[in-house]
Amino acid sequence: GSGILCVLFRESLEIFVGTEMGDIEKFDLVTRKSMTLKHHAKGVTSLALFNANRSLVSSGRDGIITVWKCHEGKVLKTIVAEESLEALAVCDHETKACTTGENGGIRFWDLKTSSEVLLRRKKYSNVLDITLAGDVLVASKVEGDVLSLDPKDGTQRSLTVGNLDEVYDAKVLGRHIAIASNSNDVRILAPTESDIWDHSASLSGHTNVVLAIDVGGEFIASASKDKTARVWKFNEEESASSLVFIAEGHTEAVGAVALAKKQKNQPSREFFVTGAADRTVKLWSLGSNASVAKKVSAVWTVLAHEKDINCVEASPDNKIIASGSQDRTVKLWGRSDSTLIATCKGHRRGVWSVCFSPVDVVVVSASADKTIKAWNSTNGTCLRTIEGHGAAVLKVLFVSAGTQIASAGADGMVRIWNAREGSQSAEIDAHSDRVWSLSAISDGDRIVSGAANGTLRVWKDVSERVREERLEESYQRTLKDQVVSDSIRNQDWSAALRGAVELSQPRKVEHIVATVLKSDDGLEVLHQAIKELCTENESVKKLMEFCRDWNAVGGSVSMVAVTHGILRVIFTSIRMDRLAEIFKASSDKAILEALVAHSRRHYERVRGMSSAVSFLDFTLHRMLSLGEVKDGARKEKRPSKREVEGYRRNAGISEIQFSEMAQKRQFSALYEGVDELRREAKQQSRSRRRRSESVVS
User: Fold this and answer.
1) Which residue in 510, 606, 486 sits closest to 559, CA to CA?
2) Whose CA is closest to 614, among 689, 558, 673?
3) Structural contact between residues 27 and 47, judged by C-beta atoms closer than 8 angstroms
């Protein structure tokens, strides 16, 4: 009745099950017998076979490793680990057991001596699970990373990065990338041929989350929530690092750091600058021969802003320091004496990023008000405001030798702008969450973006390739258009129609079909041309689309003739099953539905017109018949006026009354004739409607 924690299958058709109660249940699938192995006091978390499957080793949350004899279920050996164990693997030719537990480390045990060997529990941390895969010991970590270890000595072979958590900052360091990702360490990643990021090194030392980093030459600078900044030297060839400077002095979390730019006449970088939530900007000296870790003091400190400082940056000549804050301003400071050069005001919300142009006296800023502003770095005047982001702009940098600006937003979009004109050059739907970091490789040939969803992506600039493809496409289109014109001139209607359809030129198709229909054998020529064209499904779709659009727009009589001429040829040339196959997609069915709706509407109109014409025809016919009757009546003998007058006097009727009686008789006869006409017209209309519906069906 207890829960199952692990299951192990033995080749002799036996199953071992570890339970939460600390028991191991053994089931024989051949004899259908079972056995309970009792020794652990708490849940059994992992099982492994060794010694040619004759021995079983188990680990439990009671901190015990137990070696069993499989056949008898007898305990051969007990090893006390003194920590709750979660995973176990047998390695190194079945001589060692490797475990991980509540402390998150990896420990190795000699199965013969029952002693711990290869004391590496402090080297690895946050390990969740461990297993043997061939000749490699694979361990998974809490943060999603996967460790590959040598089972003999426990040394790390590689570390594959899994989930980076929230990427706060990322900088390109030669062929490596340094990232700050909601961790106390700065991770150094190296891309592989299989597009998987390998963990090359970790820069450890901070006691809280690293918020920002900067790189320059051999230096890597980091800023952390632990109120300090640190500077490391990193050797790319050996993937080795050493801590050289520790900057202490801020009273709140340090959220921004920037290294000085390399100058031609200086062998190394002179300083780095930090900004923190304590609203101060500090400049620190790197010194000339920094080889061992030492604490440094700030050269100068200024109370720079009224709210948290989000970003700092040094100008290309290292003479100006720019800082951006939540107080919606960008401030420019003199590097030598910390004097305020200018205050750039204009943003309506906090400033998240600043960057100097490498070629102009311009600094750009990115703000939560969805805009990017360019400022004169000498006097702080606003030169241009770039709008286009749909959410807060979190990062901005110059690329392509200062001719373009790359920016990233809280909506996951990365945009490329023309630096001089402020127009958008490209738009990338980069991530599904906030993009906190952007870094350029080879001056913008590739861009690395990191987001809050833990993804790190590299984008390649393909604008030149796209431009060449568009030029080639335009050239080919011009050639095809010329071929269509030549075919029309030579009256090669099949080639002309095919070219116009391929180029998606409905007006030219209409002109060609209208011209063909004007000739004596136009319908036959059109039938042959469209029949040749209808061998391709895409051409049929395009022709039907043209007909749908022409029906929707309406137009001249010639356009109607063109539309019905094309539809007539298509429906008489192509089988219905093939048409159904061509238009089976839901998007394509909309074309047929529009054509059917148009045809049904006009069918109803024509049917109503046919009924009206039938009634008119019948009325005229009957009127002619009445005319013939009237002519015959005239020929009959009529009473004379004297006879009529005598009849009136004998009846004692006045002249006025006699006149009214005569008019009533005439109108009554007329009404009876009209009613008869209507009844006969309705009867003929019904019979014609029945005949037309039978023909349509």
Assistant:
1) 510
2) 689
3) no
Beta bridge partners of 171: 178
Which residues on neighbouring strands pair with residue 254, listed in sequence order?
276
Report residue 500: phi and psi, to 5°.
-65, -35
pLDDT cut 70: percent of the chain above it: 85
> What pLDDT, on a 0 to 100 scale, did the predictor assign at position 436?
94
Amino acid at 334: G
Amino acid (1-letter code) at residue 343:
T
Contacts 24+ apart (CB under 8 A), 663-671: none
For 334, phi and psi rounded to 5 degrees?
-75, 130
Give the total residue count for the chain: 697
* Separation between Cα atoms, residue 488 and residue 511, nearest integer Å: 10
Which of 199, 237, 230, 191 lies closest to 212, judged by CA?
Answer: 230
Give the per-residue pLDDT at 576: 79
CA dihedral of residues 218, 223, 229, 233 (deg, nearest 10): -10
- Rounded to whole angstroms, the Cα distance separating 300 from 318 reads 15
Residue keyed to tokens 């270890």: 149
**What tokens does 686 get?**
């019904």
Give, in degrees to the nearest 5, the angle at Cα 563 between 560 and 564.
85
CB 79 within 8 A of CB 85: no
Is the pLDDT assigned to residue 303 strictly greater than 50? yes
In the chain, count H helices and then E strands.
10, 44
pLDDT of residue 646 exceeding 70, the answer is no
Pairing of strands 362-367, 371-376: antiparallel
Q: Are 57 and 95 in contact (CB under 8 A)?
A: no
**DSSP sequence for 620-632:** HHHHHHHHHHHHH
Q: Terminal CA-to-CA distance of the chain, rounded, Å?
A: 71
pLDDT at 196: 63
Residues 6+ apart with CB under 8 A from 193: none
CB count, 10 Å around CB of 599? 13
- Nearest of 147, 103, 108, 107 to residue 126 by alpha carbon: 103
Residue 586: strand, helix, or coil: helix
Closest by CA to 370, choosing from 354, 391, 385, is 391
Question: Is 315's pLDDT higher than 90?
Answer: yes
CA–CA separation, 289 and 154 (whole Å): 36
Q: Are 41 and 53 in contact (CB under 8 A)?
A: no
Q: What residues have CB less than 8 Å from 239, skipping those under 6 apart?
A: 176, 188, 190, 200, 201
- Cα 625 to Cα 633: distance, rounded to the nearest angstrom: 13
Q: Distance (Å, rounded) from C-alpha 274 to C-alpha 210?
A: 13
Q: Please write the tens of the pLDDT for every residue from 130-174.
A: 998 888 889 888 777 788 888 887 887 777 776 777 899 999 888
